[in-house]
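The records we work with from here on pair a chain with its fold. These numbers are not coordinates but entries in a learned vocabulary of local backbone shapes. To see the layout at work, look at the sequence and tokens printed below.
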Amino acid sequence: MARRSDVRSRSEIQETKDQHKRDMDEKAQELGESVEDNETVRETDDALDMGGTAEGADQIEGAMDRAQEVTYDVFERQDRELEGVQEESERDGTDLKERGKSAETDMSRIDSAAAEAHNRETADGLAKAKEMVAEDREFLDDTAEEEEQAHEESERLQKEYGDRVSATQGA
């Protein structure tokens, strides 16, 4: 019987999916905090009177520009980190879908074998095998769907935060 050498356990698959979700949630939260920092710097800059001296106003303006640049750089770094986690999640989701297709193929093969079976005991054994493959396929399909949903939510937040930062950059 041919077997894949890279087969993972259900608990490993579940833990990987859960870790991707935790990582995406954490990175999205950090990204959101960077957006808030960016907005705070921009709002503060807009609210300053700079009514002291010309030199002071120039220095304050320069310091505020640097604060905004640093905050934007942090946002960019965190955005790249989130994209890295999203890419891992996407690769794993693709792998799960491929494994689900493999299970579907196995079910077809078992069906073919059951159709050729000459005795009831053999057919019953094959039916049990098909049931196990169907259970495995359902797990893979469900887990792939959960992975995809977490990935889509992360991308939605990433786009929302990117739009907010772009709005402060253009303001």
Remarks:
- The CA atoms of residues 43 and 168 lie 9 Å apart.
- Residues 54-116 form the longest helix (63 residues).
